[in-house]
Write a structure and sequence with these properties.
Length: about 150
């Protein structure tokens, strides 16, 4: 069983109220092999919502900030905690999450300048899941893996 980002199933829950559906992820849900979740919506963030990226403060701590400079770290931390709770409750140990997101990004995230540039790193939900033994992959990695089976 997989936990998957709801936007990958076609749910218009991204910050700009769009989706980015993946046929492979949609198929997993239809086959009963995946549970869709939007971490940001779990944390009661609205859709649409302000675009956010991860920055590091002067002490090196991760912060999630909106384009306006609003600090949304607490909401994104709640999103990660609630998503992990779902994984634990359902015994899920694999996740397919939306790449580059400040919540779901795995391996690469936007660099905090809102310029479209990426840096190595994980979103808060991806980081929390990994820290707790959940295997996290992006939709691109999942598509490659699943299509090769």
């Amino acid at each position: 069983m997989y936990l998957v980002s709801a936007c990958l199933v076609g749910c218009p829950c991204r910050y700009n109220a769009t989706s980015c559906a993946s046929e492979v992820v949609q198929r997993l849900v239809k086959e009963g092999k995946a549970v869709p979740v939007c971490p940001e919506q779990l944390a009661s963030l609205p859709t649409p919502r302000e675009s956010c990226e991860i920055v590091f403060d002067e002490s090196g701590n991760k912060k999630v900030v909106g384009r306006s400079g609003t600090d949304l770290t607490e909401a994104y931390t709640q999103a990660a905690t609630k998503t992990l709770a779902i994984c634990k409750a359902l015994g899920i140990n694999q996740a397919i999450l939306k790449s580059k997101s400040p919540s779901c990004g795995s391996g690469q995230i936007y660099d905090g300048t809102f310029s479209g540039q990426t840096v190595a790193g994980d979103g808060l939900t991806a980081e929390e899941l990994k820290r707790n033994g959940v295997r996290v992959m992006t939709e691109l990695e999942a598509e490659s893996l699943i299509l090769s089976l």
